[in-house]
Amino acid sequence: MVVYNDQSTPGVNGETELPDPAINQETGFSGRAPTVLQVLPAMGASGGVERGTVEIADAIVQAGGRAIVASSGGAKTYELTRVNGEHVTMPLHSKNPFVMAGNIGRLEQLIKDEKIDVVHARSRAPAWSAYYATKRASVPFVTTFHGTYSKNNPLKRVYNSVMVKGARVIAISNFIAGHIRRYYGIPNTVIRTIPRGVDLLRFSPNQVSAERVIKLATNWRLSDGYPVIMLPGRLTRWKGQKVVIEAIAKLGRKDVRCLLVGSDQGRAAYRLELDKLIDKHQLNEVVRIVDHCQDMPAAYMLSDVVISASTDPEAFGRVVIEAQALGRPVIATDHGGAQETVLENDTGWLVRPGDVEALSRALSKAVDLDEDARRALSEKAIRHVQDHFSTAKMCASTLSVYNEVLDLGS
Predict the structure, then answer these.
(1) Three-class SS of residue 27?
(2) Do 35 and 117 belong to one domain?
(3) Are 395 and 106 in contact (CB under 8 A)?
(4) Bridge partner residues of 168 (DSSP)
(5) Structure letter (DSSP) for residue 10
(6) Alpha-carbon distance 288 to 286, whole Å?
(7) Residue 354 near residue 240, CB atoms below 8 Å
(8) Cα–Cα distance between 351 and 339 in angstroms, integer?
(9) Which ranges of the chain have pLDDT less than 50?
């Protein structure tokens, strides 16, 4: 039971970009409005996958279709129902082989009962169940490849391989598309590169009031007159918080404030390491760790420069485009998705992963930008995101993929 709660052209690096099928202006689809089922482990509160699921559900409904999501549930089911999506609770978070096998039958029955036209899988465990369910029910299967995934042994490679079994495989960046080709041998004809998007209504300088920024500055005990450097991201080693602390120490300035914004999510030992490193460099008045922020647009507007210091490549890196959407200068590590989202010296700077000296130099440039240079950078950054990384563009491209697979079966 359902519980309500462009013509095909070579892209960058050779990826095949989306075709532009004839769209029915009344439905937004090339034929009748379909029912689309998205499957993922859970609808947690803050993940990018979950947020994207709600955004696509909204786009499906707005285009005249029906959007159903199957997962084990979570806080974002509320947001799903607000956009008139529907949620079905199943134990799709489980990696237990017996539970996964049972999910095949559950999904097959759901597909038949609700007359599902397309199934879109966003994570490996539920994707395996969905893959076999779609085979049994003879409906198109689409996947989104969200990360590089661990591939240290043959069994892991087999487990990961379900994410390239879709009739179309959506890669969230050219970096991920290249990874899919390199490690899984998937041809360009199957891959569709659709970057993640920013909600340009929410992440707009005109939509963030001064009161919201002042409230956040007060909560974080920030004094006026200090340039603010911010690294958003959960406290985990590969996000590069230690590199940032070392770079701030190298910068040698006490007239800045650096905010590490993110929860440790139970990694108490790592947080203690960060506290000790801050204390070692006598940066207690300069560097602060603050928990997860509920108002990121205001946090970005509070900042003079935003950093993504990941030591491992980000599959895409939403922080970088969110900050640019609000006109903030960005510094990111020169690998992964950031190479596609940062315009070097125009909207920000790229530095070698883990390079404290290079990050410190980039920080010095960003903090010392004069008013005219900062304004010019801000305008370029906002325009860059509006042109290439909007949620609307992401959703329209995803609906085009659904059109493709539906046309293949017609």
Answers:
(1) coil
(2) yes
(3) no
(4) 142
(5) B
(6) 7
(7) yes
(8) 10
(9) 1-27
As for how many domains the chain has, the answer is: 2
Distance CA 274, CA 246 (A): 10
Dihedral (C-alpha) 394, 129, 48, 176: value to the nearest 10 degrees? -60
Looking at residue 77, its amino acid is: T
**Tens digit of each residue's pLDDT (9 = 90 or more) over 179-235:** 999 999 999 999 999 999 999 999 999 999 999 999 999 999 998 889 999 999 989
CATH number at residue 369: 3.40.50.2000
Cα–Cα distance measured from residue 308 to residue 269, given in angstroms and rounded to the nearest whole number: 22
In terms of residues, how long is the chain?
Answer: 410
Give the residue numbers spanning the domain of 22. Answer: 12-197+390-409
Helical residues (DSSP H) of 352-390, grouped into ranges? 356-367, 371-388
Count of beta carbons in the 10 Å neighbourhood of residue 333: 27
Residue 124 CA to residue 39 CA, distance in Å, equals: 10
- Tokens (6 digits) for 282: 């006598």
Tokens for 402? 């659904």
CB atoms within 10 A of CB 112: 13
